[in-house]
């Protein structure tokens, strides 16, 4: 993996795993660790971490969101960087914690110091560590979905495409409206299921029209939403988190699929 000259000491990175990765797709977490270690980082996964608080925050439960935010800050306070394989969670940590905790000088200072060290995984590799290629093989035609939080809150667009261009055997075909929401939106899909379904139906049509064998994205919630819809529609397009492909860790079944013989 090509990268800038390493610092005198290896950066200490705390991996914020995210709830969905921890409970649904642990392989994404292992892929993130591999990518970070290959880039010259020392990686730890604090046991004390829980949810970033985004579901509570988006639902108006500021009290629980604040408690979760303070727990997260305490768990990661000693690291040089905090990295998450999710634009949505990274956006919450980086942009919404200072707002959530800004009414008290002490918590505001801690929140700002914390948020300045938070990055989404792929943008951290490219923009901070200077990684410009990976050693991975993925013999497949893929298309890429730009998740809302990653794109609009964190400016993630070209970074994953830059690294995907170095993956041996991978061909990227851009879908129409790659930047348009998939309809997941966290609690949005629960509150407004009919609207969410209409949005993801348009998205899966655009995915299929681009002719890929596999759909990639940087947010597991988006991928689960689109993979579920494609499965219900009978489409044979696989779905994977971009970290799995960049790390060369694609032995697990694609998102939404099961291992043979496992119910």
Question: Keywords for this structure?
Answer:
single chain; 263 residues; alpha/beta; Rossmann fold; 2 domains; 13 helices; globular; disordered C terminus
Describe the protein in words.
- The chain has 263 residues and is α/β, with parallel strands linked by helices.
- The chain has 2 domains: 12-126, Rossmann fold, CATH 3.40.50; 133-246, Rossmann fold (3-Layer(aba) Sandwich).
- Helices cover 47% and strands 13% of the residues.
- The chain contains 13 helices and 8 strands.
- The chain has a 4-stranded parallel sheet with strand order 2-1-3-4, with helices on both faces. A 4-stranded parallel sheet has the order 6-5-7-8.
- Strand 7, helix 12 (220-232) and strand 8 form a beta-alpha-beta unit.
- Helix 5 packs across helix 8 (148-154).
- The longest helix has 17 residues, at 193-209.
- The protein is globular, with a radius of gyration of 18 Å.
- The protein starts with 11 loop residues before the first strand and ends in a 17-residue tail after the last helix.
Topology at a glance:
Layout: E1 12-15, H1 19-23, H2 26-38, E2 42-44, H3 54-58, H4 62-76, E3 81-84, H5 87-100, H6 105-115, E4 118-120, H7 121-128, E5 137-144, H8 148-154, H9 158-164, E6 168-172, H10 188-191, H11 193-209, E7 214-217, H12 220-232, E8 238-241, H13 242-246
Parallel strand pairs: 1-2, 1-3, 3-4, 5-6, 5-7, 7-8
Helix pairs in contact: 5-6, 5-8, 7-9, 11-12
Task: Calculate Rg over CA atoms.
Answer: 18 Å
CATH topology of the largest domain: Rossmann fold
Question: What is the tally of beta strands?
Answer: 8
General form = globular
Q: Determine the fraction of residues in helical runs and give it as a percent range.
A: 40-55%
Whole-number total of structural domains: 2
**Broad structural category:** alpha/beta
Oligomeric state as shown: single chain
How confident overall, as mean pLDDT?
93
List SSEs in N-to-C order.
EHHEHHEHHEHEHHEHHEHEH
Low-confidence stretches: 2-7, 259-263
Q: Count every helix, treating DSSP H or I runs of 4 or more residues as helices.
A: 13
CATH architecture of the largest domain: 3-Layer(aba) Sandwich
* Major sheet characteristics: 4 strands, parallel
